């Protein structure tokens, strides 16, 4: 019989010879809510606008991305059974390829987390401005965005119990209207609203690749249960289940929900709106009340997503800091929560939001593509780590199982390369700069250790 609990914080008794309590843990429901809550944020509410420039061909890209995301989910699930503890892509890469690969993954993923938070909060602002700052004045947009970043930070700093409860509540509140749009909304779809199948002006494959890179942003977060595996009860069983269940559920909601928006809002109007699901709801029901209801759900969804990701931006660097691959400051905690990681990363996200609103014309799309690039690097290394271990240690497994697992790993690896290529020159340019900025930090950390990796006293 399972003893899993949904959300409240449960502190295990201290281990033998230890004066410190074990980290607070949660069960399968909260782990799944963490995945769904981190994946489904305001990104899904803003993506139809970003994809409208490509036309309905982007739905093809969404299906391909969903298949690739499921391959990644299965890969993360398998890796979580092989290697326990928090850290996700960081610990997988370090275990398979050594310290430098582990550091690069931790560095990239950390950038993904706080840069992704900036993108999420920009989409959230679009839905808040359905009610206030309807003229989209930049100063007020920035103020709303900063509030959207710091409220989740304060909730996390108040303790794991509050994070878990608000995460589950926000998942429920966001899923209901999304499921409605993804089911009942399909009845109101009109083919005339879709516009040209390929509206990008590029080749079919070029449009699919570019749209796929943007669509991938909506799946960033499928690995969050593995990143926080050290806090999950019975992680060898629950992390993989939460990852796969959460990814499948998100895929269904995403594809059908985007189809509804494409079919209820004319393509020309969809390209200019900041709240596409609100416009879709208003088109279905008439008036403003339906759209405002969706806007409220989007705001709740965004805050819930930010609450989950705010925990992750502290967990990942803390796991690396324990191995002396990130500054020791990231080990600082408050109420068993990585306080320094959360505060410092939220400061960086706040700075990125301010820079983006004052320098980038397409704020959301630019931040999305940057986050996708830095996320794909850890995804690629994770798929490579799984394939490596299968080829090295899988010889003892039965051939049918080995072939199946290798096929999934190769699919995840190819998917990561495809997303990397589709993210575009600008994202690759900024992403590579962000990646290489970590090298001086690694050198600084390395000089305090000898060649065997032991810390100098």
TrEMBL record:
Annotated region (Disordered), positions in chain: 1-23
This protein's UniProt keywords: Cell membrane, Membrane, Transmembrane, Transmembrane helix
Pfam family, one: AA_permease_2
Entry keyword Iron-sulfur: no
UniProt-listed InterPro entries: AA/rel_permease1 (IPR002293), APC_superfamily (IPR050367)
Bilayer topology term: Multi-pass membrane protein
Stated name of the protein: Amino acid permease
Localization per Swiss-Prot or TrEMBL: Cell membrane
Biased composition (Low complexity): 1-10
Residues that span the membrane, as ranges: 26-47, 53-79, 100-126, 138-159, 171-192, 204-222, 243-269, 289-316, 337-357, 363-390, 402-421, 427-445
